[in-house]
Specification:
Helix 3 runs antiparallel to helix 4, helix 5 packs antiparallel against helix 6 and helix 6 packs antiparallel against helix 7. The protein has a domain of 105 residues. It is 59% helix and 11% strand. The chain has a 3-stranded antiparallel β-sheet with strand order 1-2-3, with helices on one face. The chain is mostly helical.
């Protein structure tokens, strides 16, 4: 028995099979949300808990302040600037926690971390005040160097120089002053 295959039917069959496979593949490859795109931030301020959901892709922020967990629409630029004010009170809260630490080494490390954080935010006066709380000289020198550099990067060059001048290790002080002098503001 000799069967003959029609070429036209064969081509149509192969083409139909390829189209069906492509259609199934396209339907199953819907891109999932990227892992870590949304961040949940919980903040307690004066017996009130604020919850924020941040879309790290677009920068939109949703806020929930009531007990029903209803998230309100993304914040306007003005509301986002209000959040920056809340962060400054967060800095005060961190400082209050560091002051309560009874172990002097741990307290110095906490003050160093808070001073560096304040310097990165360009808050020169707060940075100077916190640096004065550090009692261990080597920790103070290193932290002052870091803070001076970050303040210089934030455009607070005069404050950076004042802090660098408090470093009593000449080599470190010179290195920091060189970095301040030769690094442009980012």
């Amino acid at each position: 028995m000799n069967r003959r295959i029609d070429i036209k039917s064969l081509i149509i069959g192969i083409f139909g099979t390829i189209c069906a496979a492509l259609a199934m593949g396209a339907a199953s490859s819907s891109s999932p949300m990227p892992y870590g795109r949304f961040q949940l931030v919980i903040q307690e301020v004066e017996n009130q808990t604020n919850q924020y959901v941040i879309d790290t892709s677009t920068g939109q922020v949703w806020r929930c302040t009531d007990d029903r967990n209803i998230f309100y629409a993304p914040k306007t630029p003005f509301e986002v600037s209000e959040m920056a004010v809340e962060r400054e009170s967060d800095l005060d809260s961190r400082l209050a926690a560091a002051i309560k630490i009874t172990d002097s080494n741990m307290q110095n490390k906490a003050f160093a971390a808070i001073a560096t954080y304040a310097a990165k935010k360009g808050k020169a006066e707060i940075t100077k005040d916190i640096l004065n709380k550090i009692t261990q000289q080597s920790e103070k020198n290193q932290t002052a160097g870091n803070c001076a550099y970050f303040l210089g990067m934030a455009g607070k060059v005069q404050d950076a120089i004042i802090i660098a001048d408090t470093i009593n290790m000449q080599e470190l002080r010179n290195e920091i002053l060189l970095r301040i002098a030769t690094t442009s503001q980012r």
